[in-house]
Amino acid sequence: MYPAPFDYVAPTSLEEAVEELAQRGDDARVLAGGQSLIPMMKLRLAVPAALVDINRVPGLDSIQEANGHLAIGALVRNNDIVDSDIVERTNHTVAAAAPWISDPIVRNRGTLCGSVAHCDPEGDWNSVMLAVGAEVVARSATGERVIPIADFIADFFTNTLQPGEMVTEVRIPKYTGRAGGTYIKLERKVGDYATAAVATHLQLEDDGRIAQAGIAMTSVAPINRKATEAEQMLVGQTPSAELFGEAAQAAANAADPETNVRGPAEYKRDLIRVYTRRGLAKALEIAQGS
Amino acid sequence: MQITVTVNGESRSGDVEPRLLLVDWLRNSLGLTGTHVGCDTTGCGACTVLLDGKPVKSCTVFAVQANGMTVETVEGLKSNGQLHPIQAGFKENHGLQCGFCTPGMMLVGKALLEDNPNPSESEVRWAISGNLCRCTGYTNIVKSIQWAGQQLQSAGDQS
Question: Is residue A61 less than 8 Å (CB to CB) from chain B?
């Protein structure tokens, strides 16, 4: 299978990359890991006129702690996240999800930022980003802006980047004190999309009550969806199995799964309930132990 | 576009269309047909090669992306007419039947052993989880990779 013909440029600086994007506008796509984009081009689902390959741009491949957040650059591969001590220490939800992204070979190429930008509702990362309240840094020839993840995800395979903008970094808040989270996914085999998956994040007050709660779901709606009502039920409350059960039911109610080759809709909805309950229990256990 | 890639230690150049996939450049332009095309959809791992030492699915990388980099294919494993221990491991342990997945399995195995010379069964199974085999049921592939690890370690101990 071959993509349609395209122009290819491989800039060697960020300035050059955003200049290429400015000139080419909506006809250009950024190529980072390419593990979703290239298959889509081969199927002619994506037919960009040009690829701006950023793999030779320096400075985009680091995971750094800065100003109260974890900054993940546009060329950080998924296996870099799996192997990262900083991630393991700072964010349990991200650390739990990383080994579940596709398969080990694809993780050598694929990037977190690319997956975030791709906005595939069957992709794992945007659920994690919604649960932990991440921000996306978008750069263009004229400047930089920081977009909260909920505003970045526009629709099915659609983000809110403007023509000429590219994602340079994803920022994940660093939680201090008593925080925990996890990602629970059911997949039929390694490399398959999630049948359903849930990202959870909890931050506790000193007195043990829930200060912040993040819950988001994969593969059960046209976008990665935050379980907002379930989150609101938790905030300010004292954690309990009963409370988590009610929140899990609210998350399941917020899911809108389809029956397909991965299973019936009602099965997936129940997976969301069970995984939310388990995910919250795990998040609490981590937060109470920290 | 003109590209130059170090393939199995040799500098190879070519004029390629940007949409040419790395696997097809290796197979059709360089004649290195040991790298197989299985699913052509990033699923099966038969086309796995090492790009700057890391396993990648060469059906999901453009040849232009490899410009200036090193690629190792199954043809690069043997040296001085001797099988690499990973190849010997597959031979000794009946790690292949039809052989279609074998080049990808061996390259993933080689990369794993460089990071982790003595992997457990579950570590090997984890490492090859992006490679599909439809013949052997994986058991002998796991044994082959572990066998190669032991050979490499005892060779290292002697040197």
Answer: no
Nearest to A108 among B21, B43, B55 (CB): B55
pLDDT of residue B159: 62
Whether the CB of A6 is below 8 Å from some CB of chain B: the reply is: yes
Query: Domain boundary residue among A125, A144, A173?
Result: A173
Task: Sort out which chain A residues have CB atoms less than 8 A from B43's CB and list them.
Answer: 191
Supply the range of the domain harboring residue A29: 7-53
Same domain, A187 and A282: yes
Q: 3-state class of A121 per DSSP?
A: coil
Amino acid at A201: H
Residue of chain B whose Cα is closest to the Cα of A110: B56
pLDDT at A125: 98
Same domain, A137 and A231: no
- pLDDT value of residue B30: 98
Domains in chain A: how many in total?
3
pLDDT tens digits along B18-66? 999 999 999 999 999 999 999 999 999 999 999 999 999 999 999 999 9
Q: Do residues B154 and B148 lie in contact, with contact meaning Cβ atoms separated by under 8 Å? A: no
Q: Which residue in this structure is represented by tokens 């680091």?
A: A62
Q: Quick one: pLDDT at residue A162? A: 96
Q: How far is A15 from chain B (nearest CA, A)?
A: 20
* pLDDT recorded at residue A175: 85
Instruction: Report ipTM (2 d.p.).
Output: 0.96
What HEC string does B7-60 produce?
ECCEEEEEECCCCCEHHHHHHHHCCCCCCCCCCCCCCCCCCEEEECCEEEEHHH
Same-domain status, A139 and A156: yes
Top residue of A2, A75, A103 to mutate, by most chain B CBs within 10 Å, is A103
User: Which whole number is the average pLDDT over A182-197?
Assistant: 97
Distance, CA of B159 to CA of B148 (rounded, Å)? 17
DSSP class of A140: E
| Residue A49 contacts B where some CB pair is shorter than 8 Å | no
Summarised one tens digit per residue, pLDDT across range B92-135 is 999 999 999 999 999 999 999 999 999 999 999 999 999 999 99
- Is residue A1 assigned to a domain? no
Minimal C-alpha gap between B155 and chain A (Å): 28
